Amino acid sequence: MAEEKENKEVEEKEERKSSGSKLLLIIIIILLLLLLVIGGLVAYFLLSGNDEPQDNQEPQKIEKKKKVTNMTEIGPIYPLDTFVVNLINSNASRYLKCKIDLELDAPETQQEIDKKLPAIRDLIIRILSSKTVEEIQTSKGKEKLKEEIKRKINEILTTGEIRNVYFTEFVIQ
């Protein structure tokens, strides 16, 4: 009898072990399936989320292309002679040598610029000579200088306007 009791206890222990291992195996399988489903959903949302920014990037590329095509629609160019001016500097004598081309809105504006050329050159010389090296050395400084020249010349003109100012030579020494 003692042996039968021991045999029954051993069998019960084995059944518990096998039922416990079956339960553990079922839990592991369920967790793996859950991870696969969650991973699939994450992948789906990440991949489908990339389509929207690409759609947004395409119009930006188109806009850039439009800007480039606007460069092909440059108006008439009026080249000015070279300017050599002293720059404001407290330490040493510095000068600027630059060549400027003006982009006009219409060919008729050339006639007005021809008539007012001495005044325009004087205006540009006064603007350039009022600057320090530090003001015009950076690209932002050059852009501000272009805008100032354009604005001041457009104040003088009556029939047309200057669209843009181009530095074709720019040397500071």
TrEMBL record:
Predominant place of localization: membrane
Membrane topology: Single-pass membrane protein
Membrane-spanning residues: 23-47
Keywords from the named record: Cell membrane, Cell projection, Chemotaxis, Cilium, Flagellar rotation, Flagellum, Membrane, Transmembrane, Transmembrane helix
Subcellular location: Cell membrane
Superkingdom classification of source: Bacteria
Family designation: Belongs to the FliL family.
Role played: Controls the rotational direction of flagella during chemotaxis.
The name this protein goes by in its record: Flagellar protein FliL
Organism for this UniProt entry: Caminibacter mediatlanticus TB-2
Encoding gene per record: fliL
